[in-house]
TrEMBL record:
Catalytic activity: [protein]-dithiol + NAD(+) = [protein]-disulfide + NADH + H(+); [protein]-dithiol + NADP(+) = [protein]-disulfide + NADPH + H(+)
This protein's UniProt keywords: NAD, Oxidoreductase, Repeat
PANTHER family given in the database record: THIOREDOXIN (PTHR13871), THIOREDOXIN DOMAIN-CONTAINING PROTEIN (PTHR13871:SF96)
Pfam families for this protein: C1_2, Thioredoxin_8
InterPro entries: C1-like_sf (IPR046349), DC1 (IPR004146), Nucleoredoxin-like (IPR052259), Thioredoxin-like_fold (IPR012336), Thioredoxin-like_sf (IPR036249), Thioredoxin_CS (IPR017937), Thioredoxin_domain (IPR013766), TryX_NRX_thioredoxin_dom (IPR045870)
Record-listed E.C. numbers: 1.8.1.8
Entry protein name: protein-disulfide reductase
PROSITE patterns assigned: THIOREDOXIN_1 (PS00194), THIOREDOXIN_2 (PS51352)
Amino acid sequence: MAASSPTPGGGLGAILAAGDRDYLIRNSGEQVKISSIEGDTVAIYFSASWCPPCQRFTPKLIEAYKELTSHGKSFEVIFVSGDQDEEAFNAYFAKMPWLAVPFSDSEGRKSLDERFEVNGIPHLVFLDAKTGEVLTDEGVEFVSEYGIEAYPFTTERINELKEQEKAAKDNQTIHSVLATPNRNYVISNTGEKVPIVDLEGKYVGICFVVNGYPPVEEFTPVLAKIYAKLKEVGEKFEVVATLSSNIADIINEHGLDAWEGFPFNAEKLEILAEKAKAKAASQTLESLLVTGDVDFVIGKDGAKVPVAELVGKTVLLYFSAKWCGPCRAFLPTLVDVYNKIKEKNSDFEIVFISSDRDQSSFDDFFSGMPWLAIPLEDERKAYLKKKFKIRGIPSLVAIGPDGKTVNTDAKTSLAVHGADAFPFTSERIQELEKKIDEMAKGWPEKVKHELHEHELVLIRRPRPYGCDGCEEMGTSWSYNCAECDFDLHAKCALGEEKKGEEVNGQEHAAAPAGYVCEGDVCRKA
């Protein structure tokens, strides 16, 4: 949690006003003077209608807002949109009962993004309205976990809640977890009442499920088989639901083999890890893409292409969907790189693995791709997403000619190095990085650039970054202002004389920085 600290520049007016604009708006179009905002605590909500995690979180925030204001709490929320057009902004904002920075003020919205270092959405920053002090920048987590109990969202209140949680955990018993004042039993699927006291002395899994939810329907049969296996060998184990917060992940990763990790201590998990390594060493393309009699992928018009025809090639597994804004933005770059690689390397292919929700969306999105796909309703999709732990899209996983996984983040490699990243192995990426390192020896250590007021210093970057000039991804080197967290590619910082050269490891523009949606957040790539 971010420590409370003064926000540079003072109170709300200094933070929210921009140029001649000294007001915010309601979804009715009414203008509200910033100076008239009433509230001891103000939340700045960075969100967008295209972002699935935002769509899930916004109703929670609306509920908390309405409950707090109905109880007379001094609280306000201000929406800062990341939408692509005003129509989308208006439709999204229409559902919100609070204020917003006008969509037309793009510079004001960008300034707030930079001020609060917003690298992913939804992002919720709580401020002391009088001083502008940041109370916490982890508002999404706190509202999701504590709801209105976290009000007024100060460090002291959050610490108080955490202490209460710790005390409850320290004094936890199976009875305190499962019983209520009016119930001291659980039930079997036959309706039989089982006293909670009968569970004492056993390992107990607490399994939270929702009927009809596809991941739950996939997970439950596997858990049932593991349960039966443990009962068969005489383990004192019962399921009311998970033994620890990551048991579901362990079962998802190892499938039925997960029972060998019981009771899921460090020693047993090490055994599972070694078994997983052995399985990875024996991986082939057929073991990934062939299931029973299903031994094909599809081309255009549903034509079946045997997986055997892909053996010996470098294959990219492309996890994507039409509904995903970042996926649509990334597709033209991927098509361009695909065509460039295919011109020189026939031993290359891409297989599209869709997360679309209906056939028409799949067909429409796939029609713009020159490669192959796994059918929309194919069960192999779920297996591949689980195996490669796909938490966000777009994602690219590279499989080498021998069927082994060579790169689980080929998207970054491709976005930074373009077609030169082929065949996406660590050796190839390191080779490209060394080439850039050699070129960097001839670049000036410091430059001034019209896009930024401060001097920029050439630094080695340990992780990919987004260029604030061309908004493309970069790695290795950037011209950086540490004070402002501002970066430029060398090709952008050094200007026209470097155009056309392979300054940042690619001949032309890489993929837009964009966003990647992962779990509960859409992050800037």
